[in-house]
Amino acid sequence: RVSKFYDFGAPYKDLWHYWYSAYAQYRTEWNPDFPVDAAIDEAFDLMFGEKAGAHLKAFHRVQKEAYLKFALETDDLSPVYPPAMIDAMERELKAAGEAVKGDALREIRYRLIADLWWPAFELQRAQASYEPPVYEVGRLNDGETVTLDGDGGEAAWNRVKPQPLLNTRDGGPVKTALDVRWLWDDKGVYGRIRGDFKALADARPEADLWANDSVEIFFSPGLKKEEYHQIVFDFGGHSYTGYQKLAPIVQPVDLNWKAEGFRHAEKLGANGWTCEVFVPFSALRAGAAPKPYDDWNFNFVFNRMSMSEPRDYIGSALTMRVNTNLAMYGILRFNGKGD
Questions:
Q1: Which uninterrupted H or E stretch holds 179?
Q2: HEC states along 73-97?
Q3: What integer pLDDT is reported at residue 2 of this predicted model?
């Protein structure tokens, strides 16, 4: 009575993993007074038997309570639920699995629900133990320069460590090796990215930026998480930029922000490639350079999720593929000269 349901569509192919919620949705569209909880409880008993049904009802009650308390009450795009609730859901789901053993049909029905939740439990535990990574950006010393030619052979790059990367979906290891390093001076931030594979780079004007291998860079100056600047490009000449203000109220994404002065250059080969980027501080809304040892929130993403093989989603933060999830962003720490 207080909000509108939107129908599940074709892209949501995992709909049947939580058929009980979808069933309640459709019934309440016709009858707002439909007894949702009673209907779901009845369905669990009818489809899994009373013993397994009791555990599934307990699982669902914890699931619903967690959602109402910790998802609806926050703007966090990936809320972390209390470990005790995760443990309770996992315990009840395992008990239900034991109760249906030996009944082939009930086992199939059970897997339809359960198989979705095991990786979800792992992800929740990874989130609960997650600490935003800190990367120390090397300061260019007097006399050091970076020539933006895509070669990346300057000695200064050898002074800084590669940025640790992970699978942004679950925090696990990546399938594709990348070497990503960052430097800075008073003018801006320099990045060098290297891959030991042939990059997918369709240069046709009609080609899709997101179908190519592409780079995304997000800057949120300071640690207040009030805004982000997004720069996306591929190696085929396509790009996208956007800015969004998130506080004191969320504003629409500003597509008129164009990151003036941003540049990138790459050298592509059959067995590898190097890309260099430069983001001037003047292009960011604050327009000011950080001071030595200032911290900024930051996210780096390399997309290989459309046409490339192996498909991979590589990044510097556990954003769970929601690249604008500032709550999970890592930190750039701008080192001083000589560090």
A1: strand 178-184
A2: CCCCCCCCCCHHHHHHHHHHHHHHH
A3: 59
